[in-house]
Amino acid sequence: MYLKSLVLKGFKSFADRSVLPFEPGLNAVVGPNGSGKSNISDAVLWVLGERNAKHLRGQAMEDVIFAGSTARKAVGVAEVDLVLDNTDGTLPVDFSEVVLTRRLYRTGESEYLINGAVSRRLDVLDILHDSGLGTGTHSIISQGSLDSILQSRPEDRRALVEEAAGVLKHKQRKAKSERK
Ligand code: ATP
Ligand code: MG
Description:
Structural class: alpha+beta
Protein name: Chromosome partition protein Smc
Function: Required for chromosome condensation and partitioning.
CATH architecture of the largest domain: 3-Layer(aba) Sandwich
Number of strands: 6
Oligomer: single chain
Organism: Xiamenia xianingshaonis
Radius of gyration: 17 Å
Helix content: 25-40%
Family: Belongs to the SMC family.
Subcellular location: Cytoplasm
Largest sheet: 6 strands, antiparallel
Bound molecules: adenosine-5'-triphosphate, magnesium ion
């Protein structure tokens, strides 16, 4: 599985529909300060189900909607599509390509779609569950959290590595079965 592309429309500084293509392997996003690099990782977090506006560097969830600039007026809806290549079947669905979509209207209404079909946030989380992606995982490390990881206790750092390696879910399952 790999990220094929990200489509942003009305999300933060991306007022117009922007398609960002990615390649398998390592990709880098470069640009001057304030050009929207972190907004791209915010978009990835958001479409994967992030509910805490602060984790998206905002005060309220509405802050993800393009708020207007000197050249353009604000828009009423933010939308992000995350296009995943699933030819290796990492995600437990019968599609070689999975498009996850999240929308938020200024009225507060929001929706998730999986390959265009209206879905629940839970369905999105379910699909991602064993993939190492998703909220709460450390597949995305923000500028600020790097310091706290470097300064954390060895036990905590080990937990992070285990989670990133996909060991944590097996530990949780083991603990659960031992409790039964
Ligand atoms: P740096 O190199 O400093 O980390 P960056 O490329 O990561 O910069 P971002 O933080 O992604 O930059 O982008 C910041 C820009 O996004 C600011 O100009 C800010 O005004 C704009 N922005 C954030 N939210 C919105 C919004 N809702 N509507 C319009 N513009 C927004
Ligand atoms: Mg940044």
